[in-house]
Each structure stands twice: as structure tokens, then as C-alpha cells.
Amino acid sequence: MLNPVTPEFEETLRALLPAAAFKNDTAPYLSEPRGRWSGQGFVVAPASTEEVASVVRACAAARVGIVPYSGGTGLVGGQLLQEGPRPVVLSLERMNRIRAVYPSENVLVCDAGVILADVQKAAEDVGRLFPLSLASEGSARIGGLLGTNAGGVNVLRYGNTRALCLGLEVVRPDGSIWHGLTRLRKDNTGYDLRNLMIGAEGTLGIITGAALKLVPRPVGVGAALMAVPSPAAALELLALAGAQIGEGVSAFEIMNRQGFDFLAEVGPETKQPFDTLPEWCVLVDVGLSAGISPEAALEGLFMTAFEAGLVTDGVIAQSHAQRDAFWYIRENIPEANRRIGSVSSHDISLPLSAIPEFIHRGEKALAEVGVFRINCFGHLGDGNLHYNVFPVAGRSRADYEAERPAVKRVVHDLVHAMEGSISAEHGIGRAKVKDLETYGDPAKLEMLRAIKDALDPLGIMNPGAVLRQRSMPPAEV
Amino acid sequence: MLNPVTPEFEETLRALLPAAAFKNDTAPYLSEPRGRWSGQGFVVAPASTEEVASVVRACAAARVGIVPYSGGTGLVGGQLLQEGPRPVVLSLERMNRIRAVYPSENVLVCDAGVILADVQKAAEDVGRLFPLSLASEGSARIGGLLGTNAGGVNVLRYGNTRALCLGLEVVRPDGSIWHGLTRLRKDNTGYDLRNLMIGAEGTLGIITGAALKLVPRPVGVGAALMAVPSPAAALELLALAGAQIGEGVSAFEIMNRQGFDFLAEVGPETKQPFDTLPEWCVLVDVGLSAGISPEAALEGLFMTAFEAGLVTDGVIAQSHAQRDAFWYIRENIPEANRRIGSVSSHDISLPLSAIPEFIHRGEKALAEVGVFRINCFGHLGDGNLHYNVFPVAGRSRADYEAERPAVKRVVHDLVHAMEGSISAEHGIGRAKVKDLETYGDPAKLEMLRAIKDALDPLGIMNPGAVLRQRSMPPAEV
């Protein structure tokens, strides 16, 4: 069992760090983006790896839990400890230096507290691209993005966050430092600790620095919205895009008409791109090297697809502004969803070829639970759907408290039966600990536990995230 | 301490598996490609995951070590146990089914004993590419390639083997099976066990099946040999290629004149591509999508580079045969090296920008040890050099026994000082266990040991590979 932060322990920490490291225990650190859960804790913001290490050593000595806090944008409660002994909330916000940029190596090394948009900017300043891109990029920080192996819109082309990281610096649960900040593309010297730390959601150590991979900036970029007759046609279009444009396809997002209807109903205001709203459409984004224009590539794709009956309508962006407008629609669907208020939201992935059947079976299965509006959209290129279930018009989230568990179970059972994942890109945090126990392979669960116990024997690192604390039940959400 | 395979234990295994599973304990299983080390063991070749599991359960019960044996092409002795109690050598050769191909998902699922060339062929049959490519592809098997996180010539574009794997099936050291054979592109449900098993060299479990990532086949391929005035110019050319051709650059290999001289000296016979042999040249290989010809792209690159003084001469392949001829040179340099016989070979990686200085300093440092011929070549795009040190003409490897340790130490010390890796793509096996102990970060070494002990508490999985056995010294090599 862990100990709470006591006034005496607060004094211990105050003796270790300068006054600037101490923050008020206020909302940004103790609430989540949608206001669903609140946490507790004593907030400390060290400014260096050594300061992080000194805090961790003190916590280890006193058996006090540590909740690493990065940008605070996580959606599964990994940054919030609701119950149990009051922990230290360790914010990375003051570790915000870009340590070095190596344009000739396509590498950038930074503190874990740097905001994603600042990394993107630093890459752009040297003519490179850091391709990780997601809605919260203006506030999400690198440490949390690595800790959760964040996804986003460019995974199809550039991979998840783990694919964009070459090396890490990590403060271990005993306060020692793993100096793994390599800029190497190849290094086969022992187990892959980097990928073990990435996605571990701060339960095995605190990422304090990272060497990130940059890529060449595409010479030309473009986008098209294409109406497709079905999800199956969208998948065939994806394969066709791969065959014609290769790795040049940066993003391939699917949107259902429901998302457009929500935007019309509650905003934000967007410009309707089609004369007649299709049931399904995809946003195809490309970034190409010299010698071929994005518009020509997208036109070629559209023509081939049209002849094959894979698309029924389409708009190819003729300017950067029009491309931005397409993305504005896609990126505001989550905001419209938030305004409507979901009964239950699911960040799921499936084998690509299973998606049409999943959409079909999901609709049928939910109809047996009740009457809902389903907004299914997301990163089709990655098999990652945000499958969100909403009240019918005129009713609200609060009216569906009774149905919520059944909705969630129906969706997750179906995902599991079809060999999918109940958390594609958001992670486990505390909200999905029970789901992981329910759906996780038993051998896998044993290994997760063995690794946690081996690397954090005191159990102080982000207690209750990913795996339940031995002495406590998982959080109720 | 482990127990040896006794006649009684042999009978236990014979009762578990059909007669076809038992092989003679002969050379292919007990020697390495260059004949440097020999192993020992009782060879068993199960034909299914369940059979593997039953062997492992028996070994766990009897505390008998298991050496997983895949294609036997490893160069660091990971597949050979020279000393200690006689182990079971578990060959994957009879697990050679391609289980399923999903062209629309770009996924192939296979047994771990499938030969790499057979996977490449199965991908080609459905119009896709499995881009892992290396000299031993005709005999290397998927399990070993994953176990060692093999590299090869296309890492620049497609990543190491780990980047080409979506899911794994693994028999754990207690004989239970982890069913992690997912075809998902995104799955953030707990620690990254897949990447932990990949590169663990069979010390945490036996990979029995894998879901592999396929990619679209490039529409057009091409290659060029370009003479560069220096390694620094080669790096600038690499950056220029990225800027102009983007991800279309599949391979970027550097070769020193020494390799051409060795080919001339001992063969295999190759056609000399340049009128005057340059000190350094690079082989640039591209694969492009529709709309742009590889020859045009390479010509564009050459012209820009020539004007910038980055290349002095060049030949662009005008046919597939000519491209093959370029690759024939590159791929036969290791064979020429073998015929000459190295004093010491090093599979190293460095931060890209450090390479010119490393080459300069390496030459100087070795000159203080003795007089050698250095053949430095390899995957420049990945910062991965095969930095091999040879006798002067007229002398042989055997004449240099006394100098070998000093040569190795000088090279590895320099690599380490310049933040490089002493094993870029070959792994640790048994030959580099001491090197890992010498050069590895202490915190990292502690974590490796903790993970090994947590996941293989009996220490039966590939004992002495990667980490020394607790009760035994590391192998002398």
C-alpha cells in the first residue's frame, strides 16, 4: 500500500526544488478535457532530469505514488488519480527545451515537456517535417504523446508515435536515469526498452527526454474529399491509392453523414463540400516529392476509382485554403460530438477487411439495445474507427445512464469477437483497466504484470494506470 | 543451474512428438556460417505451436535449456550454445506454413519457420512487397529474423524487421502461449510485448507465428552507382535524395574502393562499373509510384548533386539487368571479405553526422595498432557500417591473433565514444555479451536483467544469449 503526500513530505520536496517548481493543486492538473473525472495530488514541476530524479527518489523512499502529467489531453484518465493515497502529480511543463536539432540526421532531441506544435515548428524551421499530428497538438506534450503512443492523422504514412522515436531518457522508479537518448537508426543491443517505455503510460518510469525522427517535407501536398458508396468501397479505394500513389498517401480518413449532420446541428460552422451529402466519404491527403503534382495524382486516383465504381462524387482541393477547409471539417467532428454529448465513445481498431462487416453488425447489435445515432468516423487507413454512440435528437447523454454499460459492452464484445482492439490509440489509462482485464489475452496480462512488478517493484509509478494496483479495485468510470 | 539433456529426457521428448520431429545432431544445427564456433544439443523440430509448447513445458519441468534455431544464419552465436549443460536445440524448420494472406489489408500471417524468400514470393504473388531483404534471404527464417530484429538493405525506407511486424504468437518459457497474432495497425492496450519479443533473440520466449506487414509494390524501380568525393559528400547526397525523391529512396549503400579491390583479388567476378575506381561510391536504389520514372528521378538527383560537387561520376542503370549487376557487386563484398578473412569485423552504427569523423579517426586509431586493410561499407542511409579490418596482402587472419582484441577494442571504444552502437543489426548473441556489459548503460543493463528474470524465471530460454547465465561466464570468442 502506498503512503499519501503528507505536509511533512511536502516539506521534503520543497527542500529539494526551487519555489518555481511548486504549482497550485488546481483544475488543469486535476481534471480531464471533457470534465468527466477529477483527480487529486500535490503538483510539482521539476525543470530538469536531475530534478525529476530527485523527486522520484524521495517518493520511492517514502512509498508515495507519482502521477506523471504532460499536456493533460488524455481521454482515458491516465493523468488523473481519483482515489487512494494522495500522490505527487509530476508535471513536465517546465522541461520544455528543444535540446538540439540535427537536420542532416533528420533528428531532433528535446525535453519531454515540449509541446507538439513547438516540435513541428522546430522541424519546419530546418526544412523538415515532424509528422505526428492530432487535434490537441497545441497543448499535448512529447512525454505524454510517447507515454500513450499517440496516433493521429498521419499514422498510415509515418506510423504511431513509437515509429517516430529513436531514443529516450527515462527516470526509473528508483530515481536512477536510463540514458537511452540515442540518435541511431539501428541498435540491436538487448531488449527494446524504448518501445517498452513508449505506451507504458508512465507506469514503468518517467520519460524526460526524447530523440525524435524527422522526415523530409513533401514537395507538394494536396487533399480530396471523395464520396464512396460504402465502407467496402472506401477500403478498395485505399488499396488503389496505395498502388497508384504509394507512400505518398499521408492520411485516409472516413466520415459518415452523421458527422456532417452534427456539424449542421450544433456547429462549429463548416462549408458543405458536396451538393448532396453522401452517406460515406473519405478525406485523402497526399504529400509528394518532386516531379508529380498532388492534384494530378488525386485526379488520376479519382478517375480510376470512378470507372471502377468506388467513388460517386469528389472534390479535389485547388488551393491550400481548400485543403485546410476539408481538414477543418474532419477536425471539428470531435467538437460537434462533444457538443451533442455521446452515450458512449469507443476508440477501436479492426483488421482492415473486417471493417464493413463490423459497421453492419454494430448497427444491428446496437438496435437491440435501443435507438441511437451512431457517428462512425476516423482513421480508416489504420483500421481505427472512432465509433461513437449518441442520443436521438432532443434527448441528452444524461437520459442514457442506464443504457451506457450495455452500449459499451455490445461494441467492445463485437470488436473483440472480430479480432480488434478496444483501445486503438488512446491507451488504457484508468478508464479501460477493467476492459483490458476482460478482453486481454491471459498470457499477455501475466507478462504485463510481471514486467510492472520487475521494473517498478514498489508500485509507485502512475499507480492504477494500465494495471490495477494490487490492493485496490480499478477505477469506476 | 540447468540440467543437461539426458537419455531419459530424450525419451520424454520422443514420447511427446512424432519420429519426424527428431533430427541428427549434425553440423547445420551446431555450427555457424563462417565455421567459427560449434554448439551442442539435442535437436528437435516440432511441426506446430502446440508441439513447441509441449517441448517447452517438458524442458521447464526438467530445467533443461532451450536454444531456438531458425535459419542458422546469425553471425553472433545466438543459435549456438558452446558450453554448459547440453540443451535442446529447437528448430523451427517444420513450421513452414504461410497461414493466410490478406492482400486488402497488406498483411501476411505465417509460421515462424518460413524462409524469408518464401514470404517475399507469397507477397509478390498477390501484387505486394515484403521489403525485408538481406543476403541470407534464401535460408534465413522469419522467427530468427524477428528474434534478431534483422536489418538489411531496405531499412532506410521500410524500417528494421520490427517495423514490418504487426503481431506475434509466442510460446513462453513456461510453455503457455501468448496469442498476440493481431493484424491491427493500432493497438494501445498495455505494454509493447511485440517489440519486447522482437530482438530478444529467443531469450524471453519462442516466436512461433507472425503477422507481417506488406507494402504496395513500387511501380518502377531503378538504381545508380555514384562516385562521391568523401563520406561527408555521401551524407549530403543522402539528404538531397530525401528532399528530391522522398520515401522513394529504398536503399543508400556506401562502398569503399577496398571492397572492389578485394573482389578483383579473390572474386566473385564482377563487372567494374567505373572507368576509374573512386575511393568512395554509393549505390542508390529507388522504387517509385506512377507518374515518374526512376531513371529520370536518379538523373535529376545526379545533376543537382554534380553541380553541388557531391558526386564526381555516376552510372544510372538502364535496365533491370544493370540494376541487378550493381547489387551483385554490393552483395558480393561480404563474400570477398570472407575469402580474404578478416582480423576483426564490426557491425556498428553511428549518428549519421558522426560518420565522416568516425572513418577518419578509426583509420588513425588502427594505424597505431598495426598495418591493416580496412573495408568500410554498408547501409549509410541507416548510419550502419560494416567496418571490417583485414590483413595486408600476403598475410592471413591467423597471423593476427595477437592484434585482434586490440583492433576490436579500438573500434568499439571509438564507436562508444561517438555515441554509436557496437551491434547495429546482428544482435548480441553470445559473441557480444561481454561487449554489452562493457558498453551498455548501467540502468539499461539492470532493466534487461530484471525483464529476463521476470519473464523467464528458470533461465531456460536460450541461456547465455544477450545476458550471461547467472552462474556462468559469458562465452569466450
How would you sum up this structure, described in words?
- Two copies of one chain form a homodimer.
- Chain A is of the alpha+beta class.
- Chain A folds into four domains: 7-93, Uridine Diphospho-n-acetylenolpyruvylglucosamine Reductase, domain 2; 98-216, Uridine Diphospho-n-acetylenolpyruvylglucosamine Reductase, domain 3, CATH 3.30.465.10; 220-331, 2-Layer Sandwich (Alpha-Beta Plaits); 341-417, Alpha-Beta Plaits (2-Layer Sandwich), CATH 3.30.70.
- In chain A, 34% of the residues lie in helices and 19% in strands.
- The first copy, chain A, contains 15 helices and 17 strands.
- Chain A has helices at residues 7-16, 27-30, 49-62, 116-125, 142-147, 155-158, 193-197, 231-245, 257-266, 294-307, 320-340, 355-367, 404-417, 433-439, 442-455, and strands at residues 42-44, 66-69, 88-91, 98-102, 107-111, 128-129, 165-171, 177-180, 206-213, 215-216, 220-228, 249-256, 280-288, 313-316, 347-349, 373-379, 384-390.
- In chain A, the strands form five sheets. The first copy, chain A, has a five-stranded antiparallel sheet with strand order 4-5-9-7-8. Chain A has a four-stranded antiparallel sheet with strand order 12-13-11-14, sandwiched between helices. Chain A has a three-stranded parallel sheet with strand order 1-3-2, with helices on one face.
- In chain A, strand 16 (373-379) and strand 17 (384-390) form a beta hairpin.
- In chain A, helix 1 packs antiparallel against helix 3 (49-62), helix 9 packs across helix 11 and helix 12 packs antiparallel against helix 13 (404-417).
- The longest helix of chain A has 21 residues, at 320-340.
- Chain A is globular.
- Chain A starts with 6 loop residues before the first helix and ends in a 22-residue tail after the last helix.
- The model of chain A has no long low-confidence stretch (mean pLDDT 95).
- At the A-B interface, strand 8, helix 7, strand 10, helix 8 and helix 10 of A face strand 8, helix 7, strand 10, helix 8 and helix 10 of B.
